[in-house]
Every structure is written in structure tokens, then in C-alpha cells.
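Narrative of activities, Objective 1.

The group set out to show that a structural description can be obtained from nothing but a protein's sequence at a throughput compatible with the screening campaign. Below is one input-output pair from the validation batch, recorded exactly as produced.
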Amino acid sequence: MRAVRVAPFLVDACALSNDEYAAFVADTGYVTDAERLGWSCVFAGFPPAALRRGAPRPHTGFRCVRDAG
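Output recorded for this entry:
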């Protein structure tokens, strides 16, 4: 581990709803990295065993999975 400095940022008081996120995507055309790249790193225990088998492990506790979004 190493120490890093992070610039100040804001965090909302509550989570974003699916409808709010959909409106954001519709308004901005936002595309996630998972959509753009076709894969995403997820917590290792989330995907079914068939998807976890042989998936790369970039960091402890994570797996890279195709079509994870």
C-alpha cells in the first residue's frame, strides 16, 4: 500500500435511483467503461462460478468478467 492525496470531491447524501441514472445517461450520452470495453472488474464472489473460472484477477478479491454490465 501507499499513501496518496485525493482532490476534494462531493458525495451525495443518498444513492442514485435507476431512473435518475437512466435520465443522466439519456441527457449526457454517458457510456461506462464496461460498456465501452466489453468487460469489467467485479467483486470475485458476485459472478456465477462459470464466469469466475479462468477470469483474470487484477487485484485480490476481484475478477475481470466479459459482459459484466
